[in-house]
Amino acid sequence: MLSDAPPSSPTPDTAWTALGNAARDAAKTRLAALFAAEPDRLDRLTLEAAGLHLDLSKQGWDSATFGAALDLARATGVEAARARLFGGEAVNLTEGRAVLHPALRASDGAACAALGEPVSAEVEATRRAMAAYADAVRSGRETGATGRPFRAVVHIGIGGSDLGPRLVWDALRPLDPQIDVRFVANIDPREMAEALTGLEPETTLAIVVSKTFTTQETLANADLARAWLAAGLPEAGRERHIVGVTAAPGRAGAWGCGRTFGFRDWVGGRYSLWSAVSLGCILGLGPEVFERFLRGAEALDRHFLEAPLARNAPVLLALAQIVNVDALEWPARTVAPYAHGLRRLPAFLQQLEMESNGKRVTRDGRPVGRQTCPVVFGEPGTNGQHAFFQQIHQGPMVVPAEFIVVRRTHETPTEAPLWANALAQAQALMIGKSEAEAHAELLAGGASAAEADRLAAHKTFPGDRPSTTILLPALTPEALGALLALYEHKTFVEGVIWDINSFDQWGVELGKVLAKAILKDVDAGAPSGTLDPSTADLLTRLL
């Protein structure tokens, strides 16, 4: 690994102070003016990583802020933490676990270890088993209970067991797939009903994805799928229609899965799409496509490990967000993928970033002294332009934007109107339009002086609003793998700098525990005396 640390680095506290001072000074200069003030700005703030092109030149940092941000990364130990992550150390300190999702996409022959235990051979064996099973299903050698080939997969999971594979399928699926893949996550029975509509039990495979095989929503949906299969299939061979993906194969087998594929506790849910969790995608896309997806992510892993901090894509993405959130106090970020296949990317990033870094205490349990993860939201372009872009252009709250632009999203050469909109939105956010310009345009368009006076303020755009643009040459498996790995490592770097544990999610648990208690009250037919008045009243109205 390369190191670009200077001979001496500031302490974290002094680095934070220096970053805040530099960012506030930089904010006094408009973004557009920084290009004239810094002739090397474009070269310094654009880079290539694993086939992706990143442009961070429209972020609000000047050279001094950029240097201060790099000093903060060094002072908080990003390089050492990176080594611990890839070395399989217990970076998930509250649960005493390694976090080794890069091992899932490492090429055969790697020597990854989790807490000193070699894991690469197991990863490769699982990968081979999935590929063999996918080939058997796709060729028709593996059939259902009545001998008919499988033509559809219903993937049942939630959270990290749903969002990643759903995104991968949306991004890479053929228009007319040999095997259709449908996803069910919501405990509302409507989603399962929609997924099963038009399918035949004889040609449908259900994949139940749950690390513990105890997830309430997943098992409720799995019960619905099992009942649907039982109603349309003979008992003999029915188990071939249900596959479990879990770290608890005993529970999955007892429940009724005829086959299981495993993953270990060093694979966090929101980082698990590289594992057997994406079995449905492997069946629908073919193992060769999924292998290309893994190789794209592995290329980004190498970039993250080897590139110096000043040219390291995940590090720079993380630092840009930290400047915006902590130095400039902007509490949200929007992500706009200008590709229909990436329409689920904002939802995927909501879980990846907000579940990882939405934390209130540092790694040693003390309250954090600053903001951590911002609110992440978004919609695909150009849809978002006709929804919330009004606010990000003219609202008083500054919301930094991230544009994901794909040069070629389909076989036909029709993408220019799509990516031209993306470039124009980023440009408009930066340059804006002054009231004087708006006034002059109104007059030039034939408005009277009085009308121009009245409307100019309404047509003024403040501008000076930061954005990052990430370019993909095409929505290939390699590019998608690199993009998702980029965001994983960005999230990790932010957690290191904020001094929080990015790999637990205790905030998910309390509501789940209370839901079980409320369900007991539902069975009893009345709220218990332990409920607060509001919850008790609402429950009474629902019973």
Features:
alpha/beta
How would you sum up this structure, described in words?
The chain has 543 residues and is of the alpha/beta class. Helix content is 47%, strand content 12%. It has helices at residues 12-26, 31-37, 41-45, 63-75, 78-86, 101-104, 120-139, 163-172, 189-196, 216-232, 249-255, 279-285, 287-306, 313-327, 345-357, 389-394, 416-431, 435-444, 449-455, 477-498, 509-524, 533-542; strands spanning 46-49, 52-55, 113-114, 117-118, 152-156, 180-184, 204-209, 242-246, 259-262, 332-338, 375-377, 401-408, 467-474. The strands form three sheets. A six-stranded mixed sheet has the order 1-2-13-12-10-11, with helices on both faces. A five-stranded parallel sheet has the order 6-5-7-8-9, sandwiched between helices. It has a two-stranded antiparallel ribbon with strand order 3-4. Helix 8 packs parallel to helix 12, helix 12 (279-285) packs across helix 13 (287-306) and helix 18 runs antiparallel to helix 19 (449-455). The longest helix has 22 residues, at 477-498. It is globular.
